[in-house]
């Protein structure tokens, strides 16, 4: 039987003392028996001093530089031994019994590699949160979306996703994953730095025949935008570059050629829209994202696995249905 002692909860921190002060007490209170770690990504605030003084019982892994979300977790988790990991954002409030359903799923379903709970908004607690909502899916053009969230549109939580089901990707805001599956895939792709690295990892797991699951029997509340808010041009750059890189890595050949070309065209339209709505820095961020994608395309191609699933999407033409 799976127990909390099999689990290591790993919280990645970068200059997030305010989040640790607010949310770490909930993690400690509601995670009895589990190992709790903070992986510090070379913070320059006094996060480390705060942790050492107030939470000496929590494991502390200190990275020598800021590796970003992807590399930061790879580096930190390499020093943590556990059967299961829970990768938890520092700006997440957990609830009582939040560990029970994911651990029971791992016990009953050995084919499941990763699990996401229901993720609700910390600010509007009856509404799903952008990063994960009721479980991650993807459309036939490679646009990620969620049950409960399509692009910027968020649903109210009326219990419509209180189920347990297979999904395409699990959010990195609160990601339960078997350590053996995480390392079998080499962890996150560090080139992503941040944003969509969890979707890439889940896609690679699915290509390897493993399953990704959602459980609405566990829930957490996420602030969101704790490191990069949605108005940041750097966030725009990372999302556009990483999405293209993810498609090149994981789509089946030869269909990826036409799809990526079509996506490049749609990105151009999106860039113009960003430019009018958010200003020139966002338009330039989309252009930089394409140059960044081209620069690492050769390395991305070499990183493709031996198998790519042909039916990868749950919805078709979502962007056109949503915006037009």
List the helices and strands and how they pair.
Blueprint lengths: L6 E7 L3 H13 L5 E6 L6 H8 L4 E4 L5 H10 L6 E6 L2 E3 L5 H9 L3 E10 L14 E3 L5 E3 L2 E2 L2 E2 L9 E4 L6 E5 H6 L12 H11 L3 E12 L10 H18 L4 H24 L1 H16 L1 H6 L15 H6 L1
Parallel strand pairs: 1-2, 1-4, 2-3, 6-13
Antiparallel strand pairs: 4-12, 5-13, 6-12, 7-8, 9-10, 11-13
Helix pairs in contact: 6-7, 7-8, 7-9, 8-9
The amount of beta strand, in percent, is: 15-25%
The helix content, as a percent range, equals: 25-40%
* Straight-line distance between termini: 50 Å
Mean of pLDDT: 94
Q: From the alpha-carbon coordinates, what is the Rg to the nearest angstrom?
A: 19 Å
Q: How would you characterize the largest beta sheet?
A: 9 strands, mixed
Count of beta strands: 13
Can you characterise this structure?
- This protein is α/β, with parallel strands linked by helices.
- The protein has a domain of about 90 residues.
- Helix content is about 40%, strand content about 20%.
- It is built from 11 helices and 13 strands.
- Strands 1, 2, 3, 4, 5, 6, 11, 12 and 13 form a 9-stranded mixed beta sheet that branches. The protein has a two-stranded antiparallel sheet with strand order 7-8. Strands 9-10 form a two-stranded antiparallel sheet.
- The model has no long low-confidence stretch (mean pLDDT about 95).
Compact summary:
The chain is of the alpha/beta class and 324 residues long. It has helices at 17-29, 47-54, 68-77, 100-108, 179-184, 197-207, 233-250, 255-278, 280-295, 297-302, 318-323; strands at 7-13, 35-40, 59-62, 84-89, 92-94, 112-121, 136-138, 144-146, 149-150, 153-154, 164-167, 174-178, 211-222.
């Amino acid at each position: 039987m799976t127990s909390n002692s099999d689990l290591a909860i790993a919280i990645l921190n970068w200059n997030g003392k305010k989040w640790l002060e607010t949310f770490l007490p909930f993690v400690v209170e509601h995670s009895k028996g589990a190992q709790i770690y903070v992986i510090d990504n070379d913070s320059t605030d006094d996060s480390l001093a705060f942790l050492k003084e107030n939470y000496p019982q929590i494991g502390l892994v200190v990275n020598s530089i800021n590796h970003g979300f992807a590399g930061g977790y790879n580096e930190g988790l390499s020093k943590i031994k556990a059967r299961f990991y829970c990768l938890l954002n520092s700006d997440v409030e957990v609830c009582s019994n939040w560990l029970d359903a994911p651990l029971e799923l791992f016990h009953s379903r050995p084919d499941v590699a990763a699990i996401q709970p229901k993720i609700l908004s910390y600010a509007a607690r009856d509404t799903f949160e952008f990063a994960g909502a009721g479980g991650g899916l993807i459309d036939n053009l490679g646009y990620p979306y969620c049950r409960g969230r399509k692009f910027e549109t968020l649903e109210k939580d009326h219990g419509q996703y209180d189920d347990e089901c297979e999904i395409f990707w699990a959010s990195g805001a609160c990601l339960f994953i078997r350590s053996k599956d995480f390392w079998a895939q080499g962890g996150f792709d560090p080139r992503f730095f941040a944003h969509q690295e969890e979707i890439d990892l889940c896609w690679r797991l699915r290509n390897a025949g493993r399953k990704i699951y959602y459980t609405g029997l566990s829930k957490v509340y996420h602030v969101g935008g704790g490191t990069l808010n949605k108005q940041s041009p750097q966030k725009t750059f990372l999302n556009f570059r990483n999405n293209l890189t993810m498609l090149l890595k994981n789509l089946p050949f030869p269909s990826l050629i036409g799809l990526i070309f079509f996506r490049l065209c749609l990105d151009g339209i999106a860039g113009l829209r960003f430019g009018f709505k958010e200003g020139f820095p966002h338009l330039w961020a989309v252009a930089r994202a394409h140059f960044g994608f081209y620069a690492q395309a050769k390395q991305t191609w070499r990183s493709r696995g031996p198998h790519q699933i042909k039916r990868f999407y749950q919805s078709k033409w979502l962007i056109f249905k949503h915006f037009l």
